[in-house]
Specification:
CATH class of the largest domain in chain A: Alpha Beta
CATH topology of the largest domain in chain B: Uridine Diphospho-n-acetylenolpyruvylglucosamine Reductase, domain 3
CATH class of the largest domain in chain B: Alpha Beta
Number of domains of chain B: 3
CATH topology of the largest domain in chain A: Aldehyde Oxidoreductase, domain 4
Distance between the termini of chain B: 46 Å
Strand order of the largest sheet of chain A: 3-5-1-12-9-10-11
Structural class of chain A: alpha/beta
Helix content of chain A: 25-40%
Strand content of chain B: 15-25%
Oligomer: heterodimer
Largest sheet of chain A: 7 strands, mixed
CATH superfamily of the largest domain in chain A: Aldehyde oxidase/xanthine dehydrogenase, molybdopterin binding domain
Largest sheet of chain B: 5 strands, antiparallel
Chain lengths: 830, 348
């Protein structure tokens, strides 16, 4: 894409984030801070039963409550929505049935929030209870009653099997085969800001929704669809998010309902969710059961792997189709795996829907893989660091499942943490109770394909420049706290050689800013960054052309730096940036440029190949030191060394912040966090409830529970990223849970093959070991599931072309592709 | 956000005014000091009040009175905030385990607001009860509020919500007393007798009584009289105890145990007097064997229920280990388990 430039003014040095001062002084306006004349308040009456048909909704009592302005029910919003076009199974309010405790059923608007809450509480609903499903095992055993009518039959949402290469041959070549079954518990995002939305109607059938969302563009599309309005009459503004982590990257019921309520009442409507409601919105980490079977050579070389995953999806599809595939798609990106089979399924259960949380679908199989490798290393007598280094995926590899890798900094990451932690001296040699564990990970830098079909840009940026010397940058990207605004401003400032303070950002407004898919999939720096670079580069060219004409020098010789444009050979010959823009304005008229970005076409062309491809991948490696008390099973994490392959830092201060944030979130998952549910004794009650939907009882580590973190940034500029940059928002979480589990083994010699690791698990494994049994706590077996339709895809090494041998759809696609490339061959069947 | 319901808020200027309001308003009146327990409970609608009387403007209820550093009874006003109790040089010197217990309550902001009297009167807790109105509707409520079943023990005739106060077991072990005042008069009660082992009626304090002060015995920690406090919880801050062990042991000049008290928190609806465990220590020097026996007996006495954090069977086992740890610390032995990071070092 873009070449790293020789001398950089701003990029690569720590700078204060552009929104930092507003945030620490309270000037940032989050969605809940907004207020409008005549604004009223909305609350949702949510289901108190886990699975039931709605017999009747009684509003009589609620209607008489003071201040009530109006109600909405499922009948008012008959059109369904969903983030993925193939699984639109959600409604603003429940239609016909409810599927989990917390499913919204009735919306009430009133003059004050207290009145709306009181009225919502006065709503009465008659339900006809249905049997409930609380786990994958129950979903497999009970195809009826179905939670949804769509999916792969019964209560399975999705079932898929893909075989890349001659797997049997791969296992035949192996000297030794290891198998493991592991479980990763569900957990939630826990963003500090609870979701809020304000909808403002306008007199001509238009509506604006201000919301705490990571994805204004997709909310915009969904609103137009559900409200049955032309998209041009719907405007979505994403307010700065007080944290997202994926929890605001789906279309939320309350966003749809607030907009509808505003249109119905003709006045602004606000909703601010409680923390408990945020637990019900969820879209967090899928509980996942995994089985790995891997063949190794005696030297530790990988020969073949068969991964099976089973996802507990909750009550709706959400991103489930993608999550199901992410549960296996990135296994090949770290180590060269010549042959690979991946079977996966997702079940519907009567719990809040799971979706994308930091690492979307990949931390679970990464945990499985990295613990599995640690065990293999131990069994083979190879140092776990060496086992990984021997199998490193080379840069530029097309993997067995057809991912096109770009730069791979994983080897340097492993070396950095091995060195920093004293691994070679200390691993396996610390006193009983003290241990070190190592693990790695890889993550996408944006998704190679859009969530809906089309070949339009994924990212767009507009620049407006004028004689003031100020540059306004318009971009649809949502700042969710990760530093999106700072990256956008820095890239434009770098290209034009101006100060951050001279840039005015207008972001995340579907009326004012070009389309941007949003802040998810770690796509912002690479995709938005490339679009910003593109737009700024075009502006630079206009200015350079005009200035070069005026000075009669070659425009190639002009330098943009220190808010000046000058001749590289004669730096005195030049002028201020504002004056340079004025010359360009004189020469070309009113100035504006655009930049856009679309990722390269991925090489895989089989059904399901859309999940996994990315312009490039980031890499991380971590070593964790733990202290385990063998008497109690309690453990403390003492230190984390982590190295992240960032390509190049746009702002190292933000990069380190993201790395540390990921480390702490990963530690929370392995140490304690659990989106747990509770079923009451069935003979007395049909209840199936979230066990602890509160910040006090859902345990997430405090600063007293987390250790110091030493971060190493590995900079190896990647041709795919702006100035060589890669993602950092999600990848560094991946090695944390397995590194901690591996450290527990090094400390006390037992395995806990599940997350979170509770003290009773360690204690139980220690006691079993003392009794001569296997020192292990974890799931016993993967359920016996038949995966009948295997997609068979030859690997690049086997001479494959990226299509499946038995996938009619991908063959059709290949035909279309060929037709496009060679119009004359259009009629020839492929 | 969760909002408070409407109620009448009265500010009492003296203890006599507070008890007069209590007597006059009758049932439906609640006292509030720091509000760190009552306000969240009212927001979630499992405690309610028509009138709430604030005690925070009553000077006589605040402060620590005693001849600093010396012997003699120490009086701590009921609305003295927890941070002040934990930071008091007198408390730290004379009753270091009490300072440790109070310092382990919740988090710094809540210790700045929460009071010693409030912590003693803390409502019993349960994961089926400390939930919002909507959540509790989803389980058809529970015996403690609006329902008929104790979901943690569905065949039980009584409520099993647990006592989660950290100061209560410690003050009981130290032999502390509380003064209760009502319009009818006043009485002084040992802290151990302030509580009843019932999740609903957990306080012996009558509704019209005001807890005005905590009285600590004249006897400080010394060479022959030592105390300890151990608390188990998930995180190093914020969390209520899932188990606390408060122990006090007095030996004679030869080091033979003359008297001992062990109270366990969070494993019953009241601070649990582990009397049989304490008895195992009597008549011999505090050593490995008697401590191990006391710890076994403590575990037998405890009835942890699955209504808080951590696996319940594991919590039962921790009763033994933590009881032993507290006693071993008093005996000057290695505690045998790793001390949680959040426990302050005992100055003695």
């Amino acid at each position: 894409m873009t070449e790293p430039r020789a001398a950089l003014n701003l990029i690569g040095k720590p700078f204060r984030r552009v929104d930092g001062r507003a945030k620490v002084t309270g000037q940032t306006r989050f969605a809940d801070d907004l207020t409008f004349p005549r604004m009223c308040f909305m609350r949702l009456h949510r289901s108190t039963v886990p699975h039931a048909r709605i017999v009747e909704i009684h509003l009589e009592k609620a209607e008489k409550m003071p201040g009530v302005l109006g109600f909405l029910t499922g009948e008012d919003l008959p059109v369904s929505f969903g983030i993925l076009p193939m699984s639109r199974d959600e409604h603003g309010l429940a239609v016909g049935k409810v599927r989990y405790v917390g499913d919204p059923v009735v919306a009430v608007a009133a003059l004050t929030e207290e009145q709306a809450e009181a009225a919502a509480r006065a709503v009465e609903i008659e339900y006809e209870p249905l049997a409930t499903i609380s786990s994958v095992e129950e979903a497999l055993a009970n195809p009826e009653p179905r939670i949804h009518e769509h999916g792969s039959g019964g209560n399975l949402h999705r079932k898929k099997s893909m075989i890349f290469g001659d797997l049997e041959q791969g296992f035949e070549e192996a000297d030794v085969i290891f198998e493991d079954t592991l479980f990763y518990g569900g957990n939630t995002h826990l963003a500090m800001e609870q979701h809020a939305s304000v909808a403002v109607p306008e007199d001509d059938e238009r509506v604006t929704l201000y919301s705490s969302t990571q994805i204004p563009h997709y909310v915009h599309r969904a609103l137009a669809r559900v409200l049955e309005l032309p998209a041009s009459r719907v405007r979505v503004v994403a307010c700065p998010n007080g944290g997202g982590f994926g929890g605001k990257s789906d279309i939320m019921n309350h966003e749809i309902v607030t907009a509808k309520m505003a249109l119905v009442l003709g006045r602004p409507v606000k909703i601010s969710l409680t923390r408990e409601e945020v637990f019900y919105c969820h879209r967090g980490r899928h509980p996942m059961l995994m089985h790995l079977r891997t063949g190794f050579g005696k030297d530790g070389s990988l020969k073949a792997q068969h991964l099976k995953t089973a996802l507990d999806g909750g009550a709706y599809s959400s991103y489930g189709v993608a999550s199901t595939l992410y549960a296996g798609a990135l296994q090949t990106a770290t180590y060269e795996l010549p042959r690979y089979r991946f079977d996966t399924l997702r079940a519907f259960t009567n719990k809040p829907p799971c979706g994308p949380k930091r690492g979307h679908g990949t931390p679970q199989p990464r945990f499985g893989y990295e613990v599995h490798l640690d065990k293999a290393a131990h069994a083979l007598g190879i140092d776990p660091a060496d086992l990984r280094l021997r199998n490193l995926a080379p840069a530029g590899l097309i993997t067995a499942n057809w991912l096109q890798l770009s730069s791979v900094g994983l080897g340097r990451c492993i070396e950095a943490v091995v060195e920093g932690s004293g691994w070679r001296r200390r691993y396996g040699k610390l006193p009983h109770g003290r241990g070190l564990g190592l693990a790695c990970g890889a993550y996408i830098c944006g998704v190679g394909l859009p969530l809906y079909r089309g070949e339009m840009p994924h990212s767009g940026v507009q620049l407006k420049l004028d004689r003031s010397g100020g540059v306004a940058v318009f971009c649809g990207q949502a700042e969710i706290g990760q530093g999106s605004d700072s990256v956008l401003a820095a890239i434009v400032a770098e290209v034009l050689g101006i100060e951050l303070a001279d840039i005015r950002l207008v972001v995340a407004d579907t009326d004012l800013t070009p389309v941007e898919f949003g802040s998810y999939a770690s796509r912002v720096t690479v995709m938005m960054g490339n679009a910003a670079y593109d737009g700024a580069q075009r502006a630079r060219e206009l200015i350079a052309t005009a200035v070069a004409e005026r000075f009669e020098v070659d425009s190639e010789r002009l330098v943009f730096a220190e808010s000046r444009v000058f001749d590289a050979e004669d730096p005195e010959k030049g002028l201020s940036f504002a004056a340079a823009v004025a010359i360009a304005e004189t020469r070309f008229g009113t100035l504006g440029t655009t930049g856009s970005y679309r990722p390269p076409t991925p090489p895989g062309r089989f059904q399901g190949s859309g999940v996994g491809p990315s312009p490039t991948y980031s890499y991380s490696a971590a070593v964790i030191e733990v202290e385990v008390d063998p008497a109690t099973g309690l453990f403390d994490v003492e230190h984390v060394w982590i190295a992240h392959d960032i390509g190049r830092c746009i702002n190292p201060a933000l990069v380190v912040g993201q790395v540390e944030g990921s480390v702490y979130m990963g530690l929370g998952e392995v140490m304690m966090e659990e989106q747990a549910f509770r079923r009451l004794p069935p003979r007395l009650s049909g209840a199936l409830v979230h066990k602890t939907p509160s910040l006090l009882e859902y345990k997430s580590p405090t600063f007293r529970d987390v250790p110091p973190v030493t971060t190493y940034l590995i900079e190896e500029p990647d041709p795919a990223g702006p100035f060589g940059a890669k993602e950092v928002g999600q990848g560094p979480l991946l090695p944390i849970p397995p590194a901690a589990a591996n450290a527990v083994f090094d400390a006390v010699g037992v395995r806990v093959d599940q997350v979170p690791i509770h003290p009773h698990m360690i204690l139980r494994a220690l006691e079993d070991k003392a009794r001569g049994k296997e020192g292990r706590f974890g799931p016993a077996a993967f359920p016996d599931v038949d995966f009948p339709r295997n997609l068979i895809v030859p690997t690049p090494a086997e001479g494959g072309d990226g299509t499946a041998l038995n996938d009619p759809r991908s063959q059709k696609q290949a035909g279309r592709q060929a037709a496009k490339e060679k119009p004359s061959a259009a009629s020839a069947p492929v | 956000m969760l909002r408070l319901p409407r109620f009448e808020f009265r500010v009492a200027g003296s203890a006599s005014e507070a008890v007069a309001i209590l007597a006059g308003e009758g049932p439906g009146t609640r006292l509030v000091a720091g509000g760190t327990d009552l306000w969240p409970n009212m927001k979630r609608r499992h405690q309610s009040a028509r009138t709430v009387v604030s005690l925070m403007s009553i000077p006589e209820l605040q402060g620590i009175v005693g001849n600093g550093g010396g012997e003699g009874e120490l009086r701590i006003g009921a609305t003295t905030c927890l941070a002040d109790v934990a930071a008091s040089a007198t408390v730290r010197e004379r009753y270091p385990a009490l300072a440790r217990a109070v310092d382990a309550i919740s988090s710094p902001p809540l210790r700045n607001m929460g009071t010693l009297g409030g912590n003693l009167c803390l409502d019993t807790r349960c994961t089926y009860y400390n939930q919002t109105e909507e959540w509790r509707r989803s389980i058809d409520y529970c015996m403690k509020e609006a329902g008929s079943v104790c979901w943690v023990a569905p065949s039980s005739p009584r409520c099993w919500a647990h006592s989660a106060s950290d100061s209560a077991p410690m003050l009981a072990a130290l032999g502390g007393r509380v003064k209760l005042v009502s319009a009818a008069g006043e009485r002084v009660l040992p802290v151990a007798e302030l509580f009843a082992n019932d999740g609903i009626d957990y306080l012996e304090k009558a509704a019209d009584e005001l807890l005005t002060e905590v009285l600590l015995p004249p006897e400080s920690d010394s060479r022959h009289s030592k105390s300890s406090f151990w608390k188990l919880r998930r995180r190093g801050s914020i969390d209520f105890a899932v188990l606390s062990v408060a122990a006090w042991v007095r030996t004679d000049a030869a080091g033979v145990v003359e008297e001992a008290r062990i109270y366990l928190g969070a494993v019953a609806s009241a601070p649990l007097a582990a009397t049989s465990a304490a008895a195992a220590l009597l008549g011999e020097p505090l050593g490995e064997e008697s401590i191990a026996e006391a710890a076994r007996r403590a575990r037998k006495a405890a009835t942890p229920m699955d209504n808080t954090d951590f696996q319940v069977q594991w919590r039962g086992r921790m009763v033994e280990l933590y009881t032993a740890a507290a006693l071993r610390e008093i005996a000057g032995l290695d505690p045998g388990v790793r001390a949680p990071r959040h426990l302050t070092v005992l100055s003695s």
